[in-house]
Design a protein that fits this description.
This protein folds into 3 domains: 214 residues, Orthogonal Bundle (Hypothetical protein af1432); 119 residues, putative deoxyguanosinetriphosphate triphosphohydrolase like domain (putative deoxyguanosinetriphosphate triphosphohydrolase fold, Orthogonal Bundle); 87 residues, eoxyguanosinetriphosphate triphosphohydrolase fold, CATH 1.10.3550.10. A two-stranded antiparallel sheet has the order 1-2. Helices cover 60% and strands 1% of the residues. By secondary structure, it is mainly alpha-helical. A hairpin with a 2-residue loop joins strand 1 and strand 2. It contains 22 helices and 2 strands. Helix 13 runs antiparallel to helix 15 and helix 19 crosses helix 22. It is globular, with a radius of gyration of 23 Å.
Length: 448
């Protein structure tokens, strides 16, 4: 069994650039990664994409953007604290604790950037559409592996495509992030083929980025598991832990805000890791719902601090196992055990039982499936029309009108069918919730 090396794992080289960039005074390579992600249009669109509750009427409810920003904040703390624990070793290779925080923060900012409209419901809708249409003529020319990729559509894999190909330098490196940040971003550094053969639940790389995945793994020295799969970069575990902490605790706040769980239920979960009595009295002017909202926010912050310290302790203890791909747990939260795991598990289970299955949420998700179906019916069929068109049977006017809506994502007739369909998915998955709904209305106005 090999061992990954920190000097290689912190590669400052950038994907899509042959010559390394020069260091700027007062701005590290990894801080550049953060800036490139934040200023991208794909990141900005997360403000209008569902986190958990589709099209909420309450403006206090989280979107993908607010969630990503909060995850990045926790991730920065996790990375910096781990960097401080490893300081003697890392400083010998020119890495400061803040660099570790910056890498994890960048990965956290991008972790949901490939998610389609309507959140996980949108992912499920895409998968189901390709599943129920698997026998249709327009999908028969795809190979089994290509079809599987669509039937198991994965926002994580789409995210890799967004940051490495679709943003900024289109198909010439994308955001051109450092390999260190790309490694920390890759929660599932394997293809759909390996997922199915290896019994994994998710994958992080489409066929179109398979060579890039191998390039990232080679540059970072990730340990191979097969020809299309590698172990995780150790910092990817910190990105995942930041997401788990925020997802679990923030769901509680949203649940209270929407009236799905009580204040006492949320406090009961948070008290697993801290003593509620340590919260000082709030200003006497705070009453009613405002008092509860402020109190739960303070309680959540205190709980997060304890969870962060628990994850940092566990990462430090498990460093050798992580570097040798001998980590025996599914994630760092599981490795923490004790009150850390108990708090996160209870928060997630409460959300599943009392928040996720609410009638309004389900009703809107049913509508989101219908919206995704309309979009795929239109853009995949139009794309197939483009693929099969020739001099005798040119593309029909309606299909061309539909493809014109794709702008720079519009495919070319001489591409492979898989490549053409990937561009259609790029366009649809990049939509915000509202734009997806507006586009379905626009499609209804297009006639032969």
């Amino acid at each position: 069994m090999g061992r990954m090396q920190w000097a290689q794992l912190f590669s400052r080289k950038r994907s899509g650039i042959i010559q390394p960039e020069q260091q700027e005074v007062g701005r590290s390579h990894f801080q550049k990664d953060i800036d490139r992600i934040i200023f991208s249009s794909a990141f900005r669109r997360l403000n209008h994409k569902t986190q958990v509750h589709p099209l909420p009427e309450n403006d206090n409810i989280h979107t993908r953007l607010s969630h990503s920003l909060e995850v990045s904040s926790v991730g920065r703390s996790l990375g910096t604290k781990v960097g401080q624990r490893l300081a003697p070793e890392l400083r010998s290779i020119g890495i400061e604790p803040s660099d570790v925080g910056d890498i994890v923060q960048a990965a956290c900012l991008a972790h949901d950037i490939g998610n389609p409209p309507f959140g996980h419901s949108g992912e499920a809708a895409i998968r189901q559409w390709f599943g129920k249409n698997a026998d249709r003529d327009f999908l028969k020319d795809l190979t089994p592996v290509e079809l599987n990729e669509f039937q198991y559509f994965e926002g994580n894999a789409q995210g890799l495509r967004v940051i490495t190909k679709l943003e900024y330098y289109l198909f010439e490196g994308g955001m051109r992030l450092t390999y260190a940040t790309l490694g920390a971003f890759l929660k599932y550094p394997w293809t759909s083929d390996f997922m199915l053969k290896g019994g994994k639940k998710k994958f992080g790389c489409d066929l179109t980025e398979q060579d890039l995945l191998a390039e990232i793994a080679s540059e970072l020295g990730l340990i191979p598991r097969s020809t299309t799969a590698w172990c995780r970069h150790p910092l990817a575990y910190l990105m995942e832990a930041a997401d788990d902490i925020c997802y679990a605790l923030i769901d509680l706040e949203d649940g209270i805000e929407m009236g799905y769980i009580t204040y006492d239920e949320a406090i009961g979960i948070l008290e697993i890791v801290f003593d509620f009595e340590t919260i000082p009295p709030l200003h006497s002017s705070c009453q009613g719902s405002e008092l509860l909202r402020r109190t739960i926010a303070i309680a959540r912050g205190k709980a997060m601090n304890i969870l962060i310290e628990g994850v940092v302790d566990t990462f430090s203890q498990q460093q050798e196992q992580l570097l040798t791909d001998n980590f025996q747990y599914e994630d760092l939260i599981g490795a923490c055990g004790g009150r850390v795991k108990a708090c996160i598990d209870l928060a997630k289970n409460t959300a599943k039982s009392q928040i996720f299955d609410r009638p309004r949420k389900i009703a809107i998700e049913v509508g989101s499936h219908a919206t995704i179906d309309i979009l795929l019916d239109a853009f995949i069929v139009a794309s197939h029309n483009l693929y099969t068109a020739d001099d005798r049977h040119p593309i029909c006017a309606k299909s061309q009108q539909i493809l014109n809506l794709m702008g720079s994502h519009q495919p070319k007739p001489d591409w492979s069918l898989h490549h053409i369909y990937m561009h259609a998915i790029d366009f649809i998955s990049g939509m915000t919730d509202k734009y997806a709904v507006a586009t379905t209305k626009q499609l209804g106005e297009i006639t032969e």
